Amino acid sequence: MSFFVTGTDTEVGKTLVSCAFVHHLRKTHARVVGMKPVAAGTVDTPHGPDNEDAVALRAAGSVAVPRELDNPYCLPLPMSPHLAARAAGQVIDLDLLADRYRQLAALADVVVVEGAGGFHVPLNDTQTGADLAQRLGLPVVMVVGLRLGCLNHALLTAEAIRARGLKLAGWVTNRIDPAMSAADDNIAYLSDRLGALPWADVPRMNTPRPEQVVWRPEAGRA
Ligand SMILES: Nc1ncnc2c1ncn2[C@@H]1O[C@H](COP(=O)(O)OP(=O)(O)OP(=O)(O)O)[C@@H](O)[C@H]1O
Ligand SMILES: C[C@H](N)[C@H](N)CCCCCC(=O)O
Ligand SMILES: [Mg+2]
């Protein structure tokens, strides 16, 4: 059992929610690991350049794995993955990603795979994050960053997920904009349209702590 986490956009809280989901799944599964197949943008760490999302997911998980399995592409520049790869003289290969995912899944009970950006983010000249999700065949968790415009983005994303024959297993709201008007009414509308309540409603946190996110009981049932 594994999940592909996508979002209504980049910077909507996919990493925070993915880490929180890993913590939640660790209550019922011994070996839970995060995967960031494609990361764009690195920071300096004591071990050399690394990606913040990959580092956070690694810290949340309960299995230590080689970096080539949990983050096969770690590209230096924070831009669309197809451009970050081009700038690094690489081409993102979905066969390679599927193979690394299979190896990682063999070491874990659950893998939480965090996509890059939104669902249709370009990975190379012809393929997008949707192709990767489809290739891995995973149920999808959609993170909705609550701000004006998110209703349209959430409905488009849900439609795209289903158009790929994938299951929208669950969705999570993240209150990224403390000034948003009628946030609860937006959640109610989406709950009605998506046919389910969000698995979690993440508050705006002064210091984000993924382990403090409260999940509904059905969260994590694919
Ligand atoms: N609920 C929240 N409260 C406070 N800060 C938040 C919250 N959600 C996200 N953030 C902050 O907003 C920023 C973007 O969140 P995050 O990195 O999880 O987004 P993302 O969707 O994973 O982005 P990317 O597309 O780059 O992977 C981070 O600095 C994160 O700590
Ligand atoms: C660099 C950033 N943090 C993400 N990893 C990549 C977001 C790419 C978005 C591309 C786009 O949809 O225009
Ligand atoms: Mg992220």
UniProtKB/TrEMBL annotation:
The active site is at K36. This is ATP-dependent dethiobiotin synthetase BioD. The keyword Cell cycle does not apply. It is found in: Cytoplasm. GO terms for molecular function: ATP binding; dethiobiotin synthase activity; magnesium ion binding; protein homodimerization activity. InterPro entries: DTB_synth_BioD, P-loop_NTPase. It is an enzyme of class 6 (ligase). Mg(2+) binds at T15, D53, E114. Its main location: cytoplasm. Pathway: Cofactor biosynthesis; biotin biosynthesis; biotin from 7,8-diaminononanoate: step 1/2. The keyword DNA repair does not apply. One of its GO terms (cellular component) is cytosol. The lineage of its organism: Bacteria, Pseudomonadati, Pseudomonadota, Betaproteobacteria, Burkholderiales. Its cofactor is Mg(2+). Belongs to the dethiobiotin synthetase family. HAMAP family: BioD. It holds the Pfam family AAA_26. One of its GO terms (biological process) is biotin biosynthetic process. Its EC number is 6.3.3.3. Keywords: ATP-binding, Biotin biosynthesis, Cytoplasm, Ligase, Magnesium, Metal-binding, Nucleotide-binding. It catalyses: (7R,8S)-7,8-diammoniononanoate + CO2 + ATP = (4R,5S)-dethiobiotin + ADP + phosphate + 3 H(+). ATP binds at E11, V12, G13, K14, T15, L16, D53, E114, G115, A116, G117, N174, R175. Catalyzes a mechanistically unusual reaction, the ATP-dependent insertion of CO2 between the N7 and N8 nitrogen atoms of 7,8-diaminopelargonic acid (DAPA, also called 7,8-diammoniononanoate) to form a ureido ring. Homodimer. It comes from Piscinibacter gummiphilus.
